[in-house]
Amino acid sequence: MNSLIPILHKTNVVGTLNMLGLAKRVGARFLLTSTSEVYGDPLQHPQVETYWGNVNPIGVRSCYDEGKRTAETLTMDYHRGAGVEVRIARIFNTYGPRMCIDDGRVVSNFVAQALRKEPLTVYGDGKQTRSFQYVSDLVEGLMRLMEGEHVGPFNLGNPGEFTMLELAQVVQETIDPNAKIEFRPNTEDDPHKRKPDISKAKELLGWEPKVPLRKGLPMMVTDFSQRIFGDHKERGSSTSST
C-alpha cells in the first residue's frame, strides 16, 4: 500500500482537528484550504458550492477526497458548536513558480517533461477537463476571504476550462512545438470534468481571477527552467571562464 495514503487522510482529519482546537483556545480565525476534489467526478457542470458532489468513498482517491470533505465537516462543527470563526475555500487546480518540479501535478508534469525533452504523458484519451488558476489569483482570493465576513465555502478557481490535450498543446506552444505526447492508461476515478462556478466569490468577495493560462504559464516555465538547468548553466559558464 502507498505509505502516503494514510498520511493524507490523517493530515486532513487529525491535522484539521488539532488546528481547530488551537483556534478555539486562542480565539483565532481559522482558514480551511479545501479542494475541488470534494465534488469528486461531478454530475453537475460547472460546480457550484451548493453541489454535494459525487465521490467514491472507497476508491483510490478517496483518502484525499473524503479527507477534505471530513475536514469541512469538522470546520463547520467547530463553527456552529464552539463559535470558532472559520473560512472555507475550495481551491481548484493552481499553478505557478516555485512549485515542486516533480510533484505529480499535471501542469508541473507537462512543463518539466517539455523542458527535459521528454514526452508529455496524457492519461486516457485526454478529453477530461480541468481549470487552471495562477497562484497570485489564488492568494488574492484567500486574502479577501480571510479579511471578509463570509464563512464560505467559496470556489476559488479560474473558470477557463481546458482538456488535458489542450493543456499539453499550450505547453508545446510555450516551450517546444516539437514535444511529443504519449498516451497512457487512465487512472481510476479520474474526474471527467472540473470547472468552478465563481459567482459567489464574485458577488461576496469581489474576486475573480485575472491571469489567463497563456500569460501565467510562461512565468512558471521561466522558474522551472532556471531550477532544472540553472546549476548546469552556472557550472558551464564558470568552467569556460577559467
Automatic annotation (TrEMBL):
UniProt KW Cell inner membrane keyword: no
Gene Ontology, cellular component aspect: cytoplasm
Pfam families (alphabetical): GDP_Man_Dehyd (PF16363)
Names of required cofactors: NAD(+)
GO BP terms: D-xylose metabolic process
MF terms (GO), sorted A to Z: NAD+ binding; UDP-glucuronate decarboxylase activity
Protein name listed in UniProt: UDP-glucuronate decarboxylase
Organism annotation: Fraxinus pennsylvanica
